[in-house]
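Retro notes - structure team

What went well: the batch runner handled both jobs without manual restarts.
What didn't: labels got mixed up in the shared folder, which is why I'm recording both outputs here explicitly, each with its sequence directly above its tokens.

Job 1
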Amino acid sequence: MKMRGKCVFNYQVNNPTPVSMMLRPRRQGGQAIYKENFDIDPSVHFSEFIDSYGNSCQRATLPMGQVTITAEVEADVVETPQLPNPLPGFVNIEELPDDIMLYILPSRYCQSDLSQIYNLASQIVGNAAPGYQQVEAIRSWVHQNVNYQYGVTNSTTTALDLVNNRTGVCRDFTHLVIALCRSLNIPARMTVGYIDKLEVMDLHAWVEAYLGDQWYTFDSVQENTHGYRIEIGHGRDAADVAMVTQFGNMQLQNMTVETQLLEAENA
């Protein structure tokens, strides 16, 4: 399926401000990028680099005044399977590839080493078979027991905060699922990008868990994980996948996000 994603950020920049951005899509299996645009208005020089997670990143110094950053992509993507067959199982720690090991460690927003997180995870999974069934039980529990609401959490909110407050947005849902999975030694990471259907369109965050010998998608905002997605980046948690990180005095005035399934539109 061909899919288009577009995001536009409008800033008021009060002093020349260095920024680091993660707005261009990953080149990887499952999504073939055939059209892309990245633009800063007014035009400024920017450089690009690949971070330690393989994400495409951009750096620039934004000038004073009104600045608009636009990123667009069209890609061939496959629909997220709702239930793989057979269900992949738990991978013993000694059998995990070296580059997967960091995804079972606690991180800034996902305090998987805390007893409150482990106890809740153990309660949620019950007698579920180790592996996919455990992660799905966690995903489903978070969907059913956490309320989706803007304006309640912020950039400091952690998985433990969500255990106590039970209200947040996709970023918070994702952090909680990741922490619960890691407490059971299941590698989990945060993935961000475009999805074709959201009640309130935004850049989206979801979980990928390493099971069997590959990564599988779990989306706790949805009743059941489904849809078409374009991945922009992934990392341990939100600290690794911020869309725009600023090092100065500027304010985001508004952001718009659009997605389209192009073949469905033309059918």
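Job 2
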Amino acid sequence: MLLTVAYLSKRFGDQPVLRDITCGLAAGQVLAVLGRSGGGKTTLLKILAGLETPDTGTVLLDGQDLLPVPPNERQMVYLYQEPLLFPHLTVFENVAFGLRIRQVGKNEIVQRVSKMLEELDLGAHAQKAPHQLSGGQRQRVSFGRALIIRPRLLLLDEPFGNLDAQTRADMQQLFLRVTRQHQITSLFVTHDSREALTVGTHFAYLDRGLLTSFPSVREFIQDPRTSIAAELTFWESIQRTAFQPDYET
């Protein structure tokens, strides 16, 4: 396992937020964690990123104990709903930022960033400022900036939640294509069951601090907490009704 989380717990005051969280993630996998707001999803990501400290438990990345490691040394990237781009930098320079602070050579930066922008369908926008882009384009720039440094683990906190339905669907497909191409290991939290099914290779449900991992997508779908089976039944009933012939009396 690349990521191993064992018996992770966190309280804020008297309120338990995470309770004995245990899960694992192999290289190249995407763990989609579904759950309602307030269930502990963001707290889990913040602990993995080093932005919160757990009360108990262990976090291992490739066998290394992460808890003593500062956030900037964990080789992870945490993506939010907001792209948080540098407004004074172009698209190219936003994506190149992580490479520049790592003192990567100029020619390599040009090559890698140009290739990444083409993969993200942003090649024609390289010299634009963030305010000249659409919401989906800004999120793609943020995504490219994360991937360009080749993180060991990508943490995604409902990253497409602020986008309209069609742009969100497009970003989900882009995420699938690029992460598969680069073999990026990811933990993707969402409150949208369809999004979880679209992006995930493995599935879990987080509810009131308790994490349930599912051995198969079938069991994930059939768990009543995900509401997926009920939604499928609803749309099947709508389809049957819509195609029933109308008979005049």
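One thing worth noting from job 2: Strands lie at 3-12, 15-25, 30-34, 56-61, 64-65, 76-79, 153-157, 186-190, 202-207, 210-214.
We'll revisit the folder naming next retro.
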